[in-house]
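hey m, so remember when u said the tokens were messed up on ur end? i reran from scratch. heres the input so u can diff it against urs
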Amino acid sequence: MTEIFFNSTMQSFVFSPLMGVIFGALFTGLTSKPSNQAPKTVVETRRVYIERRYRNSRSTSNDDGGGIFALLFLLIIVLWKYVQMAPLIHEYIQIGLVTMIAFCFSGFLMSILRGQYTSHEWLERVFVPFCTLAMCFPLLSLAKEAITHDLVELANSSNIVEFYMDEISEYGRYFLMFHVIGVCTLILLATLSTITFVHYLALMNQRENGSLHYFWTWVTRVTSRLSGNGAYVILIILLVVTALLLNGQIANWVTPG
């Protein structure tokens, strides 16, 4: 019986979306519909509730040739281990994406049912992060297609020096480096999209002084840096860059010859 909970298919298609639905419903389902006196639009709500605080911090760092060499060697290890564990890594990313999209969709649907969308502007604000999150699925498919079974077997049957220096071509080295960076930006894109979506859910749900008002205020405050048009620009740039990294286009540009 316990094997069901560790089955990858059940985790991907049952448990992860179920968790997303439950958390999304709980996240937005306990707040009452805003009254007639509450702000209706995004601009009005932000003006009433959000307090921005900016802190400037400066840091200095010194680096030398030894540090650069160590980072390059660490990068080679990461590339080698990534190829070895790619199927498992992709599976966990997929579970995370399904949970995120189910959470956002449930929160969106619950907010509609509870009358939180008092202006079309709210729908516009959540549309972009929801779309960029949804686009993470075809990007993950690109990542899966790039790491073939033969490449995984090759990484598992050779040591790190053989794999990186002898078994793959110069283009392959560049491709793997940018591919791993693309997987990282994919995770970042999904996370930032979800946070941006959550910001507007929290913003619209705090317009009534209920028992969760302070919770919504806190969530709005900690996610406020990922709001506004600037956040949308970041998400779109990340989407484009991730696609170029994962489809091998950037590797083609930088490979000599």
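this time it looks ok to me. The longest helix spans residues 65-113. if urs says something different then somethings off w ur setup not the seq
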